[in-house]
Each structure stands twice: as structure tokens, then as C-alpha cells.
């Protein structure tokens, strides 16, 4: 591990930039032709850093029309999140889905007067996902549909709220507890050993070379290090400092062409805002950019303030809470999730715990046998909801395989079981609230378990992390839905969120 203070000592201090400065720059750029950012979110946890934006789990042109009209009508920030769930797909399926989303978004925008689109590929802050496939497909689809070629793909995996920062082109995870103040390279964490999306380096240019199989050499990657992001640090006036940084960033990007990878150092929200101003300046000069980013980039790019965490009362605002218990669904197997589950079950003594036995499910000889097992599970859950909260989790033994395709198949089988339990429970006895823990889990629960098609993300349940969606249609309308990434928060976070929403905890 490395001390963060020692690493940062080589760089200037951050440039103080209010969110309003980014919003003003965006408003000026959008004065004649409004632009909406379409965020292809490879699991729904990308929404945890934003507030009051539309979310889609389907992507027909009509869905985009609903979102664009909501933005125009409500006056919310100009962005829409599209839940592609592509991290649960194989590469061919992920490519098809990305192309569908982009083509349908462009078609919907084309039917409206004076609306242009920007595209963001939102992915994991610990570097897992279909890269460079997804930005490649977005760029190719935009070029085919509009003739517009992409000059650069900006990589911003940092997520300071969750302890992921990039310094000197190296991506780190911050330590917590006794290790606070330290940095560990992400390649030395459990996330780098992911069965499907593993990687060997935290040096971002080398990561780009590794994942592109040499198509982009490490030395061809443009690195916007903190010397560039914070170029205006010495200015006496913060406005001047912000402009100096913006110009330095745009100057550094000037050479980008043909989807050149561009890596950005980020440690603070001010760094994200400085980057956003620089990207806006680069685009004003004519650069065509796509973005491959972690969750907080979208917030900074559209000039949103950091939303304070929602209270329990705010979570139910406008709706009457059910008398039923709440449903907490845990599918993720990363270490922090298992620790959070342990803390919740120890503290929430009145909650009923129901385990989905993955080994039993996979060993079922027929689909009917697996279905019967799930029916029994639903009966147990529904009965327990009548008296209080229910924690449904998959068995903690992670079944591993060296075959990435087989790993995905197992993950899909387990996720389908979780979805079936949630959906049958919803149709039988709707819960007071639903929390889904894990990226793929929360995606499948939203789109299929709760049958959400359109939702509004209202804000975070904890500072900077864990988003609350308000479903606006379907059988889950009015039920607060909490999207909780598997790899964020401390050991108490799941218990803290549950306590806010529960009537029995």
C-alpha cells in the first residue's frame, strides 16, 4: 500500500469550482441546440451519483421520447440513464445491445426539433466491463447513423465517493478503517481477479493496451494528469483558475483523432468539474468525444450539485408506505457485500432470512424441479413479509469456473432465480420497499423482478452512493427501489439503509 498524501505531494492543489460554473457553461453551449447525454449504464449502479433524472430499462424509440419529453417538461438536468445490464452479457450480445440503444436514441432525437445527443458508456469504477468493445460500438454506430466520427474516448473510472481515485495515470482504491489514508492499486484487489473481466495492471495506459490487445499502444494514450487538471491552481481568482484548467485540458486533447484513448486523473469533485469544463471547451473547439466512466462523471458533466443523502421520509415522499415488511435481496459475492450482509443479519434480529441454495438450484434435474423449489421459496418470503422485513440472499459459496462463458451462464441462472422470487412475491404481496445488493442483481430485479420500464432516480441513500429509484409505471409503482452496488459502502452501510426504510428495524 502507498500513502495517498505522499502520492499527491507531487501535484498542485485542486482548483475550487462550483457546480454552477459547469451548469452555466453547459447552458451557454446548449442555448441554440440543446444536448442530452445518453448514458448507457452497464448495470444500474451508475445512477447512485445523480438525482432527479429519468431512467429507462427498455430502449425503444418511444422510451427515449418519454425521457426527452420528461427532461423538457420538468427542467431537470439534460441526461437520461439507460439500463443495458451489458456486464451480464457476452461480448456479442453486449455489442448488439449498445447498437440498439444508440440507434433508437438517435431516431427519437431526430423526431424532435433541435435536439442533439452525447453518449456516455458508464461502467465499473474497478475497471470491469466490456472495454473497449462498448465505446467502439457506440462510435461506429454514431458514425454510421450520422457520419460523425469520434476523435477521442475519455476514460474516467474514478469514483472518489466510493474510494476509487486515479493519480498519475494509475487507478487506486483508498483504504478504510485502520488503513485510511493509504492507496492500493486496483489490480491488487479482488476485482482484478474477476472471472469474466479480470485484468493485470492499474496503470491506465497499460490497461488500455491490455484490454485492446495492442490495438492502442500504451504510449498512444493521452493522460490528463493532475498537473493538467489542476493547471489553474496558482490563479488568485477561482474563475480564472477554472478557465486556465479548462484550456489546458482542451489543449491536451487537441491531438486526439480516430477514438484516441484519453485517461483523466481524478481525486476530488473539483477535479471532475475542472475536467467537465475542459471537455466542454474541447467540444466547443470541434472535438467529438465519447466517455467511458465511473458513476460521478455524469453528475459533474451536467453540473449537478452533490445531492445530500435522502431521509426515510423523503424516500416515501408522495407515496403511502405499505404495511408489509421490506424485501432486501442480496446477490453479490464480493467481500464487502458478505460483510454487510453479516452486519445486517446480526443487527436486524426481527428480519426473516431466506437463502436461495445455488447448488441445489444448479443441480435441479428439470426446469419443473427448479421452479417448484422457487415456489416454495416465494411462499416462505410472502408469509414472512406479513410480519416484517425479509432478507433473501443467495448462498455465500461462490461457484467458480475457469470458463468465462460458463461463469456468465451460472450468474444468469442465479439471477433468474432471484428475479422469479421477487416477481412472484410482488404479484402476491407487495413489499414496503425493495433493496437489491449487487450490480447484475439490481439490474435484473429492476427490469424483470419489479417490471420497471420508466423510473426517476431521486438521489442517494448514503453520501454519494446507493441510489433510490421511484418507479413511475408497472406493478412496482410507488414502491421505493434501492440500487446498491456490491462493491461500495462500509460494513454498516446495508444496515444503515435498511434502518431508514424499515418500520420494524
What value does the average pLDDT take? 93
What's the CATH H-level superfamily name of the largest domain?
Putative sugar-binding, N-terminal domain
Number of strands: 19
How many domains, in number, for the residues? 2
Looking at the structure, the CATH topology of the largest domain is: Rossmann fold
Structural class based on helices, strands and sheet pairing: alpha/beta
**Proportion of helical residues:** 25-40%
Describe this structure in words.
Helices cover 40% and strands 19% of the residues. The chain has 505 residues and is α/β, with parallel strands linked by helices. It has 2 domains: 300 residues, Putative sugar-binding, N-terminal domain (Rossmann fold, 3-Layer(aba) Sandwich), CATH 3.40.50.10840; 190 residues, Four-carbon acid sugar kinase, nucleotide binding domain (Molybdenum Cofactor Biosythetic Enzyme, Chain A, 3-Layer(aba) Sandwich), CATH 3.40.980. The strands form 2 sheets. A 15-stranded mixed beta sheet has the order 10-11-6-12-5-2-4-3-17-18-19-16-13-15-14, with helices on both faces. Strands 1-9-8-7 form a 4-stranded antiparallel beta sheet. Strand 3, helix 3 and strand 4 form a beta-alpha-beta unit. The longest helix has 25 residues. It is globular, with a radius of gyration of 22 Å.
Amino acid at each position: 500500500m502507498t500513502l495517498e498524501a505522499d502520492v499527491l505531494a507531487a501535484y498542485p492543489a485542486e482548483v475550487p469550482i462550483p457546480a454552477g460554473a459547469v451548469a452555466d457553461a453547459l447552458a451557454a453551449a446548449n442555448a441554440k441546440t440543446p444536448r442530452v447525454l445518453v448514458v448507457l449504464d452497464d448495470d444500474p449502479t451508475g445512477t447512485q451519483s445523480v438525482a432527479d433524472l429519468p431512467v429507462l430499462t427498455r430502449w425503444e424509440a418511444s422510451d427515449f421520447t418519454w425521457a426527452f419529453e420528461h427532461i423538457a417538461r420538468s427542467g431537470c438536468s439534460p441526461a437520461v440513464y439507460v439500463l443495458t445490464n451489458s456486464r451480464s452479457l457476452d461480448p456479442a450480445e453486449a455489442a448488439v445491445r449498445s447498437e440498439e440503444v444508440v440507434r433508437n436514441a438517435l431516431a427519437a432525437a431526430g423526431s424532435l426539433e433541435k435536439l442533439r445527443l452525447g453518449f456516455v458508456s458508464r461502467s465499473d469504477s474497478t475497471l470491469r466491463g466490456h472495454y473497449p468493445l462498448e465505446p467502439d460500438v457506440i462510435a461506429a454506430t454514431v458514425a454510421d447513423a450520422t457520419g460523425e466520427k469520434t476523435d477521442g474516448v475519455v476514460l474516467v473510472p474514478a469514483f472518489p465517493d466510493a474510494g476509487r481515485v486515479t493519480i498519475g495515470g494509475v487507478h487506486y482504491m483508498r483504504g478504510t478503517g485502520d488503513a485510511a489514508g493509504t492507496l492500493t492499486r486496483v489490480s491488487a484487489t479482488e476485482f482484478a481477479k474477476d472471472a469474466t473481466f479480470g485484468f493485470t495492471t492499474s496503470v491506465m495506459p497499460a490497461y488500455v493496451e491490455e484490454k485492446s490487445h495492442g490495438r492502442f499502444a500504451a504510449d498512444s494514450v493521452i493522460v490528463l494528469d493532475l498537473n493538467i487538471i489542476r493547471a489553474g491552481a496558482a490563479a488568485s481568482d477561482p474563475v480564472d483558475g477554472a478557465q486556465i484548467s479548462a484550456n489546458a485540458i482542451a489543449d491536451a486533447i487537441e491531438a486526439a483523432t480516430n477514438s484516441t484513448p484519453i485517461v483523466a486523473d481524478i481525486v476530488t469533485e473539483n477535479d471532475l468539474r475542472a475536467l467537465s469544463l475542459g471537455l466542454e471547451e474541447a467540444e466547443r473547439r470541434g472535438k467529438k468525444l465519447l466517455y467511458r466512466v465511473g458513476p460521478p462523471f455524469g453528475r459533474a458533466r451536467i453540473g449537478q450539485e452533490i445531492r445530500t443523502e435522502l431521509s426515510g421520509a423523503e424516500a416515501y415522499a408522495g407515496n403511502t408506505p405499505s404495511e408489509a415488511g421490506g424485501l432486501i435481496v442480496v446477490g453479490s459475492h464480493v467481500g464487502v457485500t458478505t460483510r454487510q450482509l453479516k452486519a445486517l443479519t446480526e443487527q436486524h434480529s426481527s428480519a426473516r432470512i431466506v437463502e436461495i441454495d445455488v447448488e441445489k438450484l444448479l443441480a435441479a434435474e428439470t426446469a419443473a424441479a427448479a421452479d417448484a423449489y422457487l415456489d416454495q421459496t416465494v411462499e416462505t418470503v410472502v408469509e414472512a413479509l406479513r410480519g416484517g422485513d425479509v432478507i433473501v440472499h443467495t448462498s455465500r459459496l461462490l461457484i467458480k469456473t475457469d470458463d468465462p462463458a460458463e461463469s456468465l451462464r451460472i450468474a444468469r441462472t442465479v439471477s433468474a432465480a432471484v428475479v422469479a422470487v421477487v416477481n412472484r412475491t410482488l404479484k402476491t404481496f407487495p413489499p414496503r420497499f425493495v433493496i437489491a445488493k449487487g450490480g447484475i442483481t439490481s439490474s435484473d430485479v429492476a427490469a424483470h423482478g419489479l417490471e420497471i420500464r420508466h423510473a426517476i432516480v431521486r438521489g442517494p441513500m448514503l453520501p454519494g452512493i446507493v441510489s433510490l429509484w421511484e418507479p413511475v409505471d408497472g406493478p412496482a409503482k410507488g414502491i421505493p427501489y434501492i440500487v446498491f452496488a456490491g462493491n461500495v459502502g462500509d460494513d454498516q452501510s446495508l444496515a444503515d439503509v435498511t434502518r431508514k426504510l424499515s418500520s420494524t428495524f
